[in-house]
Predict the 3D structure of the following.
Amino acid sequence: MHKLKGVAGMLGAKGIFALASETEAACAAGDARRASGIAVTLATQLQALRESAAPVINAARAQADAAVDVADMAPKPHLIGELVDLLRQQNLSAVDRFRSLEPPLRRHLPAAAYQALRGHMDALQFDAAAEILEGNGVICDA
């Protein structure tokens, strides 16, 4: 509750902040019944926030996808090579590098290979991700 309260405060979600504060106080006082009741109201408020924010989030995603239509270009082999190096080093920076290269990779890898790559990246299975990139001809000696 403490983290939720802090995030709600930073975002200006006053109602959620108040409910999280009340729930935290009830928990600290050992009043599980009160905390449980407030938590139900809090869950309803969070769902309402999720629903009201969905159009804004979806519009931002659509705008990002439209801006990334430059991704029709083939992935740059040297950038893919750098990604593979980060993956082989088990470097968490590979996650950010993958995200930046994801649109062209999605367009240029076979669908099954891309889905497998994405799954390995999500699971932080970096060696398996590197093998997919190396095995699908995305990297060429340049």
Remarks:
- Helices lie at 2-11, 14-28, 32-67, 77-88, 93-108, 111-122, 126-135.
- Residues 32-67 form the longest helix (36 residues).
